[in-house]
Amino acid sequence: MKLTLEEFFKLLSQYEIEEIEGLRLEGDIEIELEEGSFAGVLAEVANEINLAIQHLNNALAKLGISPALQPQVERLEGKVLLERKFEPFRVSYSTAIQEVQLGAKRSEGGSRESVVKLGGEKSLPFYLFDSPQPNLPVISIDVFDKPIPLPKAVREHYGDVMEDPAEWAKRAVKFGADVVTIHLVSTDPLLDDTPPSEAAKVVEEVLQAVKVPIIVGGSGNKEKDPVVLEKAAEAAEGERILLASATLDTDWERIGNAAKKHNQVVLSWTQMDINNQKTLNRYLLKRLKLPKDSLVMDPTTAALGYGLDYAYTNMERIRLAGLKGDEDLAFPISSGTTNAWGAREAWMKDSPIEGDTPWGPRELRGPLWEIVTGLTLSLAGVDLFMMMHPAAVAVMKELISTLCGKKNKIETGDWVEAEI
Amino acid sequence: MKVKSPLEIYKLLPKTNCKECGYDTCMSFAAHIIDRTAKPEDCKPLVEAAKHDEEARRNLEKLIELTSPEIDEVVIGKELKIGGEEVLHRHELTFFNPTALFFDVSDTMDDKEIDERCSRVVEYRKFYVGRYLTLDGIAVRCTSRNPERFAEVAKKVAGYGKPMILVSLSEECMRAALKAVSDCNPLIYAATPENWRGFLDLALEFKVPVVVRSSDLNTLKSLAATFKSEGVKVVLDPVTEAMGEGLRKTFERVVQLRRTAIAGGDKEVACPILVTPIAAWMVEGDAVSKAYWETVIASLFIVKYGDAMILHSLEPYTVMPIIMLRENIYTDPRTPVQVEAGLREINDPTPESPVFVTTNFALTYYTVESDLVSANISGWLLVLDTGGLGVEVSVAGGQFTADKVKELMEKAGIAEKVKHRFLVIPGLAARLQGAIEDETGWKVLVGPTDSGRIKGWLEQHWPPK
Q1: Interface check B350 vs A, CB under 8 A
Q2: CB B251 within 8 A of CB A126
Q3: What is the ipTM of this complex?
Q4: pLDDT exceeds 60 at position A300
Q5: What does the pLDDT read at residue A51?
Q6: According to the model, what pLDDT value does residue B13 have?
Q7: How far is CA A165 from CA A142, A143, A161, B129, in A?
Q8: The pTM is what?
């Protein structure tokens, strides 16, 4: 059967389509239809017209004209499901995040049995449908060079090893740490004022005790940290340890030079400010000529409920800028997820506020606080999490491998009509 | 919204700068429409003119259409809005309608359990930044497959006055429940490729929004297009699979749906998305593991595009992180989160009461203030202008200095209000102790690092010896 243009418009008018604004058809147009049952054909026609109207509307929208028609034809043939094809919108970015290796094997000049690679991604985290994610985000567990006050829920897992950093480090590996961070807090002049050379021995002990890559942190003392980290870099020659951290108000030059000289990696730490992050990275890369594969960023982690929104958005902006070609920001991101334990909701016995619903047992609340803080930032692009609670580490690992496509399909029943 | 420039909006306004909308010029009003702090309907002269003038009516309609959100807004109950989003990343503008949290009851639970769960939803409160966070609604699930029982429980739950989702795939059961509670405007769950004709009839007959459900996105889009073409308000459920590759695929479906709607301009999938972390309860394991995994799924989709959720665990240890994450992600990044600096009087202080210092970061301020009030402490609270930064950051960044403390004390006239000369500073500002003493001549005491511990601290340190 054939439909003439006139009949076509009659058909249109039947579906309450009055005019197609700004559109004129010229010449003889015939629409051919295959023979078949008339109702069936009409249903198909209806569908086709709907699609045509959609295309027309899309075309008009591109010309800045608002849609002329609303698809209405399905009223023709009772209730027919409008067949649609979902065409996912594709996104690709110009730049891959720099790949950075922590740890070095014997063949590479170090003594590690395992190493980790951070970065390398070309898409937002876990967007495997845009681009494969070459390296899974990794987890480091914090170890300190002297016993420090810790929330009860954390302390009960480390209480017996806190006097011995090497044993503590082994415990961290047992809990699944891919990397161990040794914080040399005792070097703080206000604490024990441990000399840098002695602190470096602790670094050696930890390197002996575990086979995974290590991160070395200072005490936060701006004057002393560069000296301490320099000694640590020297003691760990060639191990590709991560020196935590260079900041704008410390002697970043000294830390960066130590990393260059002894083949280590620098953590570039700024206080939640994308411009400062860019500045410090430029100093390290351009002024100091630190190799690009030796820089990781810490844009600062704030706990859930205590500025997590800023931390999340700052990291997401940094990652998007990196992917879109900002060479100063295309580096792996590290998160001090342990900061989650600073939130009172993580450690306090119950709410100090009278009107609150009771908070529930803190031994269950605390790990979840660390998990949700880390999980949120994993979606902003974090490649390296520094954590503490073993249950939080386990859950984060499960989630990361799931979202990176390392898990099989697991069938479960439907919840809709199930008794739970 | 379709327009990006205030000029396109300005063209359609009366251009009289009458100020009735509260802004000085039509251009300024247009700019506020663009960032969604004003709506076209706020232009009273235009709304008035539209009643009799054809051109004004067209302009108003065009304005409303041009400024409608990228993602449809759907109302559940009286006024709970979901969807209405404009952007994929919160820093590009802000997210608007916080993920609505619904907690389930099922009609095979006994009435006592149903009442208890409903009460917990209604009564839950968590104080945060000056107000209480609360939960949104209740999802009533038909597990009895008995229409009368489902209707009865729906009616009972409706009595709690919270927005509802009715959950059943059976048209018969859903019809019974809708007859009982359709005046509450519940969201109905769910139309599937098998039952959609019946659910379309229900949605049209009872004028309620409906969830369409399929893990196949072609089918999901077909269902959404079909329902939308009939004028039904649609919410998408791309099916939440709780574990393994299924969860990864769920993440992919949710992201693809939202990105294709906003960046790809596909209006047929530009609907709010429903996620069901409750699916975690179908996985083998103990209750704590299930509750943990449910929280993980919920958190994942609070950050990424979930507009409404059905959850099972009402344990405070899972509810609290979820509700605070939602608050964080949906906070408007355009509004500075600070309070006015100056002196606050807490619980009628006397000249003997302690003087505390804190910053004007809203979160810090409200935490300290509410801790003092709840612990029944009388005191003077000096709120320092740190540009909205917390204690630790502002001490490190130089916004919290001895100079500024002195200046604030003079401005507030605190020396005339108290007889003593002691100042309590936050534990996290300990390093400024000497500098503030030098600058002000007052004796500075270092308080605890968490204001929740001020009460205990005062018992030991106040009055000072």
Answers
A1: no
A2: yes
A3: 0.87
A4: yes
A5: 66
A6: 94
A7: 10, 7, 7, 39
A8: 0.86
A63 part of contact set with chain B, CB < 8 Å: no
Task: Give the residue carrying structure tokens 């919840």.
Answer: A415
Whether A275 has its CB under 8 Å from any CB of chain B: the answer is: no
Question: Can you give the pLDDT at residue A42?
Answer: 55
- State whether CATH 3.40.50.150 applies to domain B342-461: no
| Mean of per-residue pLDDT scores for chain A | 88
pLDDT at B396: 81
> CB under 8 Å, gap of 24 or more: what pairs does A272-278 form?
A272/A299, A272/A300, A272/A302, A272/A307, A272/A310, A272/A311, A272/A314, A272/B393, A273/A299, A273/A314, A274/A299, A274/A314, A274/A317, A274/A318, A274/A321, A274/A329, A276/A248, A277/A318, A277/A329, A278/A326, A278/A328, A278/A329
Nearest C-alpha of chain A: how many angstroms from B415? 30
Instruction: Please check whether residue B104 touches A, CB under 8 A.
Output: yes
Q: Which residue has the higher pLDDT, A52 or A209?
A: A209
Would you state the pLDDT for residue A49?
Answer: 66
Q: What are phi and psi of B61, to 5 degrees?
A: -60, -40
DSSP string, B273-296: BEE-GGGGGGSSS-HHHHHHHHHH
Compute the mean pLDDT over every residue in chain B, rounded to the nearest whole number.
95
Q: What are phi and psi of A395, to 5 degrees?
A: -65, -40
Domain with CATH 3.20.20.20 in chain B: 73-330
User: Which of B263, B325, B371 lies nearest to residue A89, judging by beta carbons?
Assistant: B263
Q: Sorting pLDDT into bands at 50, 70 and 90, what band is A176?
A: very high
Buried b (16+ CB within 10 A) or exposed e, A242-252: bbbbbbeebbb
Of B134, B128, B152, B132, nearest to B142 by C-alpha is B152
Over residues A254-295, the pLDDT tens digits come to 999 999 999 999 999 998 889 999 999 999 999 999 999 999
In the stretch 233-272 of chain B, residues with CB closer than 8 A to chain A read 241-248, 251-252, 255-256, 259-260, 263-266, 268-269
C-beta separation of B108 from A419 below 8 A: yes
Q: Which of B229, B244, B296 sits opposite A375 (nearest CB)?
A: B296
| Ranges in chain B annotated CATH 1.10.15.40 | 6-66
* Amino acid, res. B319: V
Q: Using the predicted structure, report yes or no on whether residue A41 has a pLDDT greater than 60.
A: no
Q: Name the residue among B222, B246, B325 with its Cβ closest to that of A84.
A: B222
- Note the CATH number of domain B6-66: 1.10.15.40
Q: What is the pLDDT of residues B169-204, one digit of tens each?
A: 999 999 999 999 999 999 999 999 999 999 999 999
Partner B contacted by A304 (CB < 8 A) = yes
Please list the residue range(s) of chain B that carry CATH number 3.40.50.11600: 342-461
Record: contact A403-B124, CB cut-off 8 A = no
The pLDDT of residue A70 is: 56
Q: Which CATH number fits domain B73-330: 3.40.50.450, 3.30.70.2190, 3.40.50.620, 3.20.20.20?
A: 3.20.20.20
Residue B90, judged by CB atoms within 10 A of its CB (0-12, 13-18, 19+), counts as buried
Tens-digit pLDDT profile for residues B362-380: 888 988 998 898 889 999 9
**Domains, in order of start, for chain A:** 2-77 (no CATH), 100-403 (3.20.20.20)
Q: Which of residues 134-193 of A touch B (CB under 8 A)?
A: none
- B304 close to B251: Cβ distance less than 8 angstroms: yes
Assigned token pair, A239: 């191990």
Instruction: Give the pLDDT confidence score for residue A7 in this predicted structure.
Output: 56
- Given a cut of 80, whether residue A40 has pLDDT beyond it is no
